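Example record

One chain of 317 residues, shown exactly as stored in the release files.
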Amino acid sequence: MGSIRAEEDPVTSWPVRVGVSIPPAGFKSREEADAYVNAAADGGLDHMITADHVAFRGGQGRDGLMTMAWLAGLHPTIGLYVGVYLLALRHPVAVARQVSTLAEDAPGRLTLGIGVGGEDRHEMESVGVDPATRGRRTDEALDVLLPLLGGSTVDHDGEFFQVPDTLISPVPDPPVVVTVGGRSGAAITRAGTRGQGWLASWCSPKRFADGVALSEEAALSAGRTGVTWRHGYQVWVGLGDTPEEGAGILGPAMESFYAAPFSRFQKYSPVGTPSEIAAWLAPFVDGGATDFNLAPVAGTPSEAIAGLAEVKRILKR
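Predicted structure tokens for this chain:
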């Protein structure tokens, strides 16, 4: 499927943003977190990344917006990307207030990636959400959240949420970027009709380019024009002197995190030197990616940060 973008050189004409996730196990101390965040900023990386959960697989997880509020205080300018926030588990008015507060304290730094979740059905049931409704709840929550963040008064009586004559102030200035993550066709359509980009993972460059085109076509069908798109790709990477060394470091980390064999993820997990990883990612730039959310595994945290900084430099070239 052809893209509906104007023809241009994707590498030189589009900005490429590269972010680094917080370590899967979190930080042992504020000092460790401070060093990690500042090293990322000093290395030229654009944003920090965190996921979001309420009670995942036995109660695990971190609240994405709370984590970003903390990280925002560790550096004055580095971007903040929640990828992805489980909006269906919250009331959208309360989320609008949290986002407004964070945007006021860290203006222009937040990107809010929205996802439907569902990997752990019990997590949704814990807050009274039927997992079968998570897509519809997410759509309706976005239809409340986005106008509130845009400064509109919302009077909404829907299937899941009742919001009588409500306004949230201050309005984020500049506006918060909202993207949509997910692998399904519904997620791609949601990105086009409601978001500013599709945040993809676990897919090939062709699938990514097709999804980007489909999301932008969905936007046009919905009457949305003039969108400044922020399509992105989110992936783990294993840094080493060779692909074998990178895979040897990455595999155990992913198996521990997902409780599944690395073979399930290996096809979509770039490994090796920064040059090899950048070469693996470059086709996604050609397909429309401007944001890369990377979860690096390396010998040390400093090696992970330095490796991603080099990946960014190569992609920018």
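Notes: The longest strand covers residues 79-86.
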